[in-house]
Amino acid sequence: MNYFEYTHALVCADVPRSVINGLSLDKHEPVDYELAKKQHEAYLKTLEDSGLNLIRFSSNENHPDCVFVEDTCIALGNKVFITNPGAESRRNEVLVVKSKLEQVSRELNLQIASVQNTSSSFIEGGDCMFTGKEFIIGISTRTNQQGIDEFKSFFKEYPVTVCQVAEGLHLKSFMSMVLPGVIIISQTKEAKLIEEQILSKSKFASDYRFVKVDENCAANVLAFNRNILTCMEYESMYLNKDDLDKHKRFRVENSEFKKIDGCLTCRSVFFKI
Questions:
Q1: What is the pLDDT of residues 16-44, one digit of tens each?
Q2: Positions marked active-site
Q3: 3-class secondary structure per residue, 107-168
């Protein structure tokens, strides 16, 4: 399998007006709905223009965070694991996502599994990062060990390294993949604590290389099919980063989603058939 090459992306087709009430760890300026809508449209167009086939589901005003589909399922190849979000207000989102994936599962030959113990096993996709060799998963306020154990039972063929995410929302709030084995990561205190855990716990630690940037959100990029999607807001932080220049780079705005803790990886789930 050629990792980070994909044929399809699951996305929310539009942005609910209720996104202005999306969950956030911190107080923030009001979300500009019209601008958020334009930013998401540009995001989807970039993915589609790159050649990806988009599988779209409609937004739901009862689910303010539904545009952040990454948290509802985790995919690799044609295998998809439906999560059970740690945020109670987001748990019904998975029903919509599961229904959509089941609609296309025969056509796309998807293998689908779900969290079974929904009362105590919690996991969100924002805490799960595939490196090309293993999954690195963060235990956070949204993901616990029971949820990770259920995930591992489905993806038995891959090792898992578990790290504690002491602050912030998700593991990928601090880092993401640029290339197989190349991790872009923030230089904040919280990110450094996670990096130390990866280096001490992962049996692949010596194979990893870290590209450092100054801010957490700048460390979340979307690498796919020899392309990379980055935030315009952090363009100065990507100067002289040779690993990013190995891709064809697309730049999009993410200002409105950042207000509610949304990064670039949050709004799509990639898989390959």
A1: 999 999 999 988 899 999 999 999 999 99
A2: 170, 266
A3: HHCCEEEECCCCCCCCECHHHEEECCCCEEEEECCCCCHHHHHHHHHHCCCCCEEEEECCCC
